[in-house]
Amino acid sequence: RIDERKKAYQADITYGTNNEFGFDYLRDNMAVRLEDVVQKGYHFAIVDEVDSILIDEARTPLIISGPSDESTKIYQQVNRIATRLQEEVDYKIYEKEKTVALSEVGVSRIEGLLQIKNLYDEKNMNVQHHIIQALKAQRLFKTDVDYIVKNGEVIIVDEFTGRLMFGRRYSDGLHQAIEAKEGVVIARENQTLATITFQNYFRLYKKLSGMTGTAKTEEEEFIHIYNLPVVVIPPNKKLIRNNYVDVIYRTEREKFKA
């Protein structure tokens, strides 16, 4: 596997997906032996659908993670506590920001249930974090909207496409909180071992270029972030399409009747 990738990167031109290049970079940074490093340098990149990769998905993180040593019992415990708390009394929900804030009454109630003196003590900060995640799982993340439960597994639903995102998990213990809520097997939380965004990865290259049919509208961002001007290449043949002004109808029936 490593030998195959090394051979590919030794070629004058290496073709691949942005995910492959990004994860190879992360694995190289985690390598403990020089012979396990596959990439040889960052000289010139040509990115297809460049606006999608460098603008739309620019902040998308590539993450290599591994299981942590923390026990999963904490998620079941805080899930039981979260179900006993009352909205607007013990906590407040901010749906737009998808966050939860505990009230003083809620903090006192939690301290009583856990039999601790101070929830915000340094040694209890982890518990407080998990309770917040449990409340978010119960009040902000909806079954068959944000995720589905299939074959005893919580699967995230992409909010933009509606597709199931197999293998993807919410971070910071949120996925485990949802698993506790749904009563399925709770997997150990993963800890991030290495991460980089597409934006930061492609900025490693000395020369960066790309092509797409929709870059002109993003020209300002390309110049500001990557110092890349946009050049419009005219079509090979004269455009025969007629572009008419937009017409808006009051109802769908009127639109189809027109």
Automatic annotation (TrEMBL):
GO terms for biological process: intracellular protein transport; protein import; protein targeting; protein transport by the Sec complex. SUPFAM superfamilies: P-loop containing nucleoside triphosphate hydrolases, Pre-protein crosslinking domain of SecA. GO terms for molecular function: ATP binding. One of its GO terms (cellular component) is cell envelope Sec protein transport complex. Keywords: Protein transport, Translocation, Transport. Residues 1-258 form the SecA family profile domain. Pfam families: SecA_DEAD, SecA_PP_bind. The keyword Protein transport applies. The keyword S-adenosyl-L-methionine does not apply. InterPro entries: P-loop_NTPase (IPR027417), SecA (IPR000185), SecA_DEAD (IPR011115), SecA_motor_DEAD (IPR014018), SecA_preprotein_X-link_dom (IPR011130), SecA_X-link_sf (IPR036670). Signal peptide: none annotated. This is SecA family profile domain-containing protein. It comes from marine sediment metagenome. The lineage of its organism: unclassified sequences, metagenomes, ecological metagenomes.
